[in-house]
Amino acid sequence: MYPTYGYAARDARTPLAPIEFQRRDLREHDVRIDVAYCGVCHSDLHQARDEWRNTMYPVVPGHEIVGRVAEVGPGVTRFKPGQLVGVGCLVDSCRTCASCAEDLEQYCENGFVATYNGVDRVSGDVTCGGYSTQLVVDEAFVLRVPDNLDPAGAAPLLCAGITTYSPLRTWGAGPGKKVGVVGLGGLGHMGVKLAHAMGAHVVLFTTSPSKVEDGKRLGADEVVISKDPEQMKAHANSFDLIVNTVAAQHDLNPFIELLRRDGTMVLVGAPEHDHPSPQVFNLIFKRRRLAGSLIGGIAETQEMLDFCGQHGITSDIEMIRMQEINDAYERMLKSDVKYRFVIDLDSLRAAAR
Q: Does residue 305 belong to any structural domain of this protein?
């Protein structure tokens, strides 16, 4: 067993606080990783505060993880000590169902094992995430991080990056396509960067005039203030794809009306409460589609990392110490971050000495 230091929520109401726990001994195909950086996802806050009503306490969040391989099990063939690697939202799946056979582990029909707040298929223990000094993961769920990417900026790619990359790839974003991205937060800013790198004409939708210039800096060809009916009307019936990253309940109809015939809006934001149902005729009369997408499988996540390596894409981040996580949560609720907090885990190691 490996003594490990982390930060955990012990209930839905109290701040995250230090915790010491044990990582399992290495199984044959396990990789032990010294965590260097971990991104802070809005899902972490939802889970810590039990807003999805499924949290198992104490919970150690974190699923945007980058670090170095420290040790490998006897059967490991893909990794060796010293390699820069990442771990995203998944650490296991059944590996036998139809979805797993198609490299779509995120849709495992027997339930994937989440990096934290999941249940280990072998031991039955609750999984603990990347707000910690080390991690033990089966090599099949470990990813290679391109050496040319800044490791801290690469951490959010493991969730925010793949969450937007997967629908962009699935629905064919590329040259000749008009792609909208709704919201300029942790997910949205990655959606803009990736859609731009794929060669699409990218339009950012935001409610904040102050984000116009930043949206263009990140790669948006146009920025629309979604509260302005005239700006919205100017884009009616014109989008091939809209990726909606907003994690708060809102009216979907104004965006559905912007889709051309056979256009698709994909929801990737995960709000605490469901959006109001859209008007059916907005879908029927243009054969428009409203879809959802959940991260990506391991193969697609590796493809995304390689794509980001080729194009030099990382997340725009603000580095924090582990001890600042509770303040970061409050700032995240106010959208007071550009555009992803990333925890430097050396801050936790130093405090634990």
A: no
CATH of the domain at 145: 3.90.180.10
Residue 183 and residue 90: Cα distance in Å, rounded?
A: 25
Judge contact between 19 and 60, C-beta under 8 A.
yes
For residues 77 and 80, give the distance between their C-alpha atoms in angstroms, rounded to a whole number: 8
Instruction: Name the residue among 69, 87, 89, 88 with its Cα closest to residue 79.
Output: 69
| pLDDT at residue 316 in the model | 97
| DSSP per-residue codes, 93-132 | --S-SHHHHTT-GGG-TT--EESSS-B-TTT-PBP--SSB
Residue 266 forms beta bridges with which residues? 243, 291
Q: Are 161 and 145 in contact (CB under 8 A)?
A: no
User: Do 119 and 170 belong together in one domain?
Assistant: no
18 shares its domain with 151: yes
pLDDT band at 247 (very low <50, low <70, confident <90, very high): confident
Residue ranges of the alpha helices (H) in the chain?
Answer: 42-48, 98-101, 151-154, 160-170, 186-198, 212-218, 229-233, 253-256, 280-284, 298-311, 325-333, 346-352
How far is Cα 132 from Cα 19, in angstroms, rounded to an integer? 9
Q: Domain total for the chain?
A: 2
Domain identity same for 151 and 14: yes
Instruction: Give residue 270's pLDDT.
Output: 84
- pLDDT tens-digit readout, 5-47: 999 999 999 999 999 999 999 999 999 999 999 999 999 999 9
Judge whether residue 353 has pLDDT over 90.
no
Q: Give the model's pLDDT for residue 273.
A: 85
Q: Which domain holds residue 170?
A: 160-292
Residue 340, beta-bridge partner list = 317
> pLDDT digit string (tens) for 156-166?
999 999 999 99
- CB atoms under 10 Å from CB of 175, counted, come to 8
Is there a contact between 72 and 31 (Cβ–Cβ < 8 Å)?
A: yes
Residue 206 DSSP one-character state: E
Widest pairwise Cα distance in the chain: 64
